Amino acid sequence: MTVFVTNMLLLLFLVFLLVLVIRTRRLFAVVVLAGAYSLVSAAMFVNLDAVDVAFTEAAVGAGISTVLFLATMAYLPGREKVLPSSGRIGNAMSAAIICVIAGALLVAAAVELPPVGDPTAPAHLHVAPRYLEESYSFLHIPNVVTTVLASYRGFDTLGETIVVFTAGLGVLVLLSGYTRTRRTRDEALSKGEGDDA
Amino acid sequence: MRDNPVLRTAAKILFAPIIVFGLYVQFHGDYSPGGGFQAGVIIAAAFILHALIFGLEAGRRLVPEWLNLAMLAAGVLIYGGVGVAGMMLDGLFLDYNVLLPDPSAGQHVGIILVEFGVGLTVTSVMLALFHAFAGFSENRFADNSDDTAGGRSQ
Description:
The complex is a heterodimer of chains A (197) and B (154). Chain A is built from eight helices and no strands. Chain A is mainly alpha-helical. The termini of chain A are far apart. Chain B is mainly α and 154 residues long. Chain B starts with a helix and ends with a helix.
């Protein structure tokens, strides 16, 4: 019960932060508020006993993302531009209708879900009992999350690592500055100096 | 931010403990929350803090680009290599049981190696992202970022 109440309070706080993010026009404040949003989400995950997820959320969401946003912000003006068309009623109405329909669908789907932490939920009856039992008695590793992540589901984690690798490489290629214009300029420069045969 | 003595001292004091904490999260992941993904981000955060305070050039000198790219690929290769090693020892791909005579010890070794690969890749991706974003326009960040970043954030 306390878990439920705490989560509801944290959820309300998340909504409050979201409203602040939408309302404010100062980009610096938006970045810091987004970091706070991640930190509150991490607190929520701790509350739900998902410590490993909370750890990742706090380190990536509140830590690195904030720094990356700030690094990017150096190229942007300090305030968000107010679009002249943002006050149009038709756009707001269609957006509101889509939000209400999507929200209703999500709530309708969530009603069917088993309660959080229910040991008889279908997801906890398939392979989870074997993992929980074996992890300590056979592998002698108390943290089941690690054994599932690295051993039982090692193939998935290999895929995740490759995704991180590919994403990093893609961003590097995009941002390395070696664009076509710069390459042609470099080539033109080296030709001008008469270096290449 | 190079000239602020408080920031400089704080960064110097914090740099090593952050890395030690990252290594703890990395190699103690079997027993406590954590693992390669979290540890990679924490270790990268230490280097990002260094680059934020002492400038991007100092950060690039500390972790040169070739080293970072090598670590980026080495992490994935270590992970895949552990899988191939299992196949060489008459097991399946990513089967850690065959890595050592004792299957339980083999699992320990396999998990630690695999998590090390994940940590290596995540560290270098985070660091490369920061270097790429912060150095996007070289001429603006070439000397030091303090006047640009400080002025823009107002």
